[in-house]
Design a protein that fits this description.
11 strands, three-stranded parallel sheet, 11 helices, six-stranded parallel sheet, single chain, 308 residues, TIM Barrel
Amino acid sequence: MTASRPAVRTVTGDVAPSALGVCDAHDHLFLRSPLLPGQELDSARAAAAELTAFGEAGGRSVVQWTPHGMGRRAAELPALSRATDLHIVAATGLHQAVHYDEDDLAALRTGDLAALFVRELTVGIADSGVRAGLIKVAGGFHSLDAHARWTMTAAAEAHHATGAPVAVHLELGTGAQDVLDLLCADLEVPPAKVILGHLNRFPDLEVHLRAAAAGAQLAFDGPSRAHHATDWRMPDAVRALADAGHGSQLLLGGDTTTSAARSVHGGPGLPHLLRGVRPRLERAVGKDLVDRMLTANPARAFAVQWPG
């Protein structure tokens, strides 16, 4: 029997990793959280407009990190993918506890969380037929609480059953070593299958280099806010990591989380990654490295030899 080749699991089916093309490795088309009242990403029309703008800027694929229970609208993603001719990857997993109603969390705690993740990766997200292509979890600010350890333990079990990558929201970029100690050292997830998000928000080069040396993927995702050191320090961080031999582990994403942040509503949105971040980064570190961060690196990070 011939072994299956690695593939990226998109909302319209598995594709060759090279088909991703220019990839926004961390963003959101739909999202709902009690922490963001009135800023829900819940408009299919706005999502289509964002995808169209991203495609016009040269984008070919978007990885949505919206996990279970946060309004990811999985059933609407295939039509958006086909209408805009862009690949979309959906996520399973759970975010921090503060993003959920306590009753919903209580119900999840009575079940088998890992089995839920595996089902959404292999069978499909309920009432959608869409299979997720990654597992998204989250740490806390400089720490891992009981909720984070529960969700990461389930994510590791789901990874071992499917091979799916585990994408981690680092709160303000902190806690990377704690995450790697738990997921990789204790739970034996290969570091190359762990994607650390938001390290750019905690611009400590030693932290970045240690995470990269451990073998993890590093996602520089989200344009700067006043209190973030994302855009203006990103070139130095990318250059240092590349000089240390870690250029193949770097990803770029936009992380649009509110309606006001969409480009169609006057914010940076999805196209900012290619119209704003890309040229600035190219001037600093060269076009070849940035091209790899947008194409070859995400193709490798999200490729899985799926079971069955």
